[in-house]
């Protein structure tokens, strides 16, 4: 009966300790950004119900395999996942503090009794040592903070995953563009080497000036230098992609130059590797970004810590109890009538601590204010990233079209100049200048195509997927 009463008392104390919290009521701060995103009128669409999955954004099967390999083997993402598991364990530790720790023990003592006779006391049973009954919600607030930190860590993992996907896509597109630049440089080197050979032959027969010969030599050397630079850049791009994947890039997963706009090829035949990202009008879509959610959960944790700091001003009530068998002799320890129990509650109120609790409360309030500012900054940064990407949503495509027209016009100029040169109506310098202009325009076309695809990736990341 007494043991039942003791267990009932412990259970009732545990239930009462879970009912109080001194933490302030949490309210999400205002976003401090315009209510509407600056979406161009020609691209305005309804906001999607959920973030766009990367499998929907990436259309090419090869590139999907590349991203999947990175998600499985990238070390930074592995660390982020382990951080989540560690936060789960820390939450379990904090939750365990809300319940008594029960131990089993056997103890013995020998001391004089009231008559001065030395007596032996043996005890065996269960013990609860200094269990804090959380009447003022200190441990509950710490548990809420740990729960929010777990959610923040999980949001951080999703943010790391989103960043990894965007980085892999950007690295792949950069490698594809540099492969296209390398192929262009190889064709240009071969073409200018042939032109230099003809110019030398004409110079040998006195049909070309020294200036024409040196100009042809200069253009040929320039093309060779560009070729060497392109080869180095491609090698570095592959190394960067391998680091993101956490393993060497399989040959079959390397991008082809044809997946970007290739000068001279049919632009309409270029495969669409990345989808167009739909962007809604309401800036509230930014709240589903994982980094914004991470900042908000950290704010919730800081808010809960205020409750724990406030509880320190109230008495801390602890309970020590034991129940088991007691006897003066080991032989009679298990006999009937040897059951005994003790219960010793204690309330301790801090009277003077030289301002420790007061300063701790002020520190937690300031930490909450810092978390508010960090949350607002994360929302503002998300808005800026999205606004920048939206600004390029239509303009990069328009610029790419304009650049394609420039390449077509420059190619016609170069063809007509070659025709005039073969008929003696144009000089060697005019011919070389036309070649130089075409090479520069084709390089810029590839770079513009890369920038347009990078902008798609930036918008996908800015909207949280």
Quick description:
The chain has one domain (2-109, 120-462): Outer membrane efflux proteins (OEP) (Up-down Bundle), CATH 1.20.1600.10. The protein has helices at 2-17, 54-57, 61-73, 75-96, 138-204, 210-245, 290-311, 356-422, 428-462, and strands at 102-112, 118-133, 316-327, 339-348.
Lay out the secondary structure.
Blueprint: H1 2-17, H2 54-57, H3 61-73, H4 75-96, E1 102-112, E2 118-133, H5 138-204, H6 210-245, H7 290-311, E3 316-327, E4 339-348, H8 356-422, H9 428-462
Antiparallel strand pairs: 1-2, 2-3, 3-4
Q: Treating each run of at least 4 consecutive H or I residues as one helix, how many helices?
A: 9
CATH top level is Mainly Alpha
Sheet with the most strands: spatial strand order:
1-2-3-4
Kindly state the percentage of residues in helix. Answer: 55-70%
Whole-number mean pLDDT: 85
Annotation, overall tally of beta strands? 4
Order of helices and strands: HHHHEEHHHEEHH
CATH superfamily: Outer membrane efflux proteins (OEP)
| CA-atom Rg in angstroms | 37 Å
Q: Low-confidence spans: pLDDT under 50, at least 5 residues?
A: none
The coarse silhouette is elongated
Class derived from helix and strand content: alpha+beta
Number of domains: 1
Q: Could you describe the largest sheet, including whether it forms a barrel?
A: 4 strands, antiparallel
Strand content: 5-15%
In the CATH scheme, what's the topology name?
Outer membrane efflux proteins (OEP)
Cα separation of the termini? 61 Å
In the CATH hierarchy, the architecture is Up-down Bundle
Pfam family, one: OEP
InterPro entries: MdtP/NodT-like, OMP_efflux
Membrane topology: Lipid-anchor
Subcellular location: Cell membrane
């Amino acid at each position: 009966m007494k043991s039942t009463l003791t267990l009932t008392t412990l259970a009732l104390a545990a239930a009462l300790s879970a009912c109080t919290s001194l933490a302030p009521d949490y309210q999400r701060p205002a976003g401090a950004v315009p209510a509407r995103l600056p979406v161009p009128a020609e691209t305005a669409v309804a906001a999607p119900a959920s973030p766009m999955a990367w499998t929907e954004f990436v259309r090419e099967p090869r590139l999907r395999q590349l991203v999947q390999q990175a998600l499985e083997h990238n070390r930074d993402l592995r660390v982020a996942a382990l951080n989540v598991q560690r936060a789960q364990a820390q939450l379990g530790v904090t939750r365990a503090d809300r319940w008594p720790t029960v131990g089993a023990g056997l103890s013995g003592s020998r001391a004089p009794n009231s008559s001065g006779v030395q007596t032996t006391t043996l005890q065996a049973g269960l013990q609860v040592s200094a269990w804090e009954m959380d009447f003022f919600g200190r441990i509950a607030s710490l548990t809420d903070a740990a729960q929010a930190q777990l959610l923040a860590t999980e949001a951080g993992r999703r943010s790391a995953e989103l960043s990894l996907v965007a980085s892999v896509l950007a690295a792949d597109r950069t490698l594809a563009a540099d492969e296209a630049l390398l192929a262009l440089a190889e064709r240009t080197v071969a073409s200018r080497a042939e032109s230099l050979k003809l110019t030398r032959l004409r110079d040998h027969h006195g049909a070309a000036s020294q200036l024409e010969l040196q100009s042809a030599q200069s253009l040929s050397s320039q093309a060779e230098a560009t070729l060497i630079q392109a080869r180095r850049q491609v090698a570095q791009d592959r190394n960067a992609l391998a680091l993101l994947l956490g393993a060497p890039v399989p040959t079959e997963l390397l991008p082809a130059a044809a997946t970007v706009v290739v000068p001279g090829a049919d632009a309409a035949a270029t495969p669409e590797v990345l989808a167009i990202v739909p962007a809604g009008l309401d800036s509230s879509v930014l709240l589903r970004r994982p980094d914004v959610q991470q900042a908000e959960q950290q704010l919730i944790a800081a808010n809960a810590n205020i409750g724990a700091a406030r509880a320190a001003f109230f008495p801390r009530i602890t309970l020590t109890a034991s129940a088991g068998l007691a006897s003066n002799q080991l032989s009679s320890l298990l006999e009937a009538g040897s059951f005994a129990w003790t219960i010793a509650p204690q309330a301790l109120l801090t009277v003077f601590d030289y301002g420790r609790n007061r300063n701790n409360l002020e520190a937690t309030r300031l930490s909450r204010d810092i978390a508010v500012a960090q949350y607002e900054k994360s929302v503002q940064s998300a808005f800026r990233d999205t606004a920048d990407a939206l600004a390029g949503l239509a303009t990069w495509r328009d610029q790419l079209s304009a650049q394609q027209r420039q390449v077509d016009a420059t190619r016609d100029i170069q063809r007509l100049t070659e025709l005039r040169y073969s008929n003696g109506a144009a000089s060697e310098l005019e011919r070389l200048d036309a070649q130089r202009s075409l090479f520069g325009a084709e390089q810029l076309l590839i770079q513009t195509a890369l920038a347009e695809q990078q902008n798609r990736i930036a918008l996908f990341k800015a909207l949280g997927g």
